[in-house]
Amino acid sequence: MAETNWNSFIDQTNERMAALRKAMPEQAKGLGQLAQAAIAPGALDSKTKELIALAIGITARCDGCLAFHAKAAHKYGATREEIVETIGVAVYMGGGPSMIYGAEALDVFDAVS
């Protein structure tokens, strides 16, 4: 099985998302505003919110979500230990499939760190 180059995956996904944003600018603008508002610090800081998003990405089995939210969690200062604990919660909530995607999430975090 080939190793995933997560940085290339992120670049490729960004290119695809840029094309989609161009095709549907109003919807993309709305989603972008929602994302900014959701991650903005409030009662929870941005790092905690990105860890929550990562856990949801794991349980939803979304490769793009793993890539973007692991990278963002790193940007906001998440440690590898925090990522592992986040994966533990996702596995608790999502079972065996979340274990597989949790391993992917940790691989992404290690690649972008």
UniProtKB/TrEMBL annotation:
* Coiled coil segments of this chain: none
Q: What is this protein's name? A: Carboxymuconolactone decarboxylase family protein
Tell me the NCBIfam families matching this sequence: ahpD_dom (TIGR00778)
InterPro entries xrefs? AhpD-like, AhpD_core, CMD-like
Q: What is the lineage of its organism?
A: Bacteria, Pseudomonadati, Pseudomonadota, Alphaproteobacteria, Hyphomicrobiales
**Protein's organism:** Hoeflea ulvae
Q: Where is the Carboxymuconolactone decarboxylase-like domain?
A: 25-106
Domain of life according to the entry:
Bacteria
* Pfam families cross-referenced by the UniProt entry: CMD
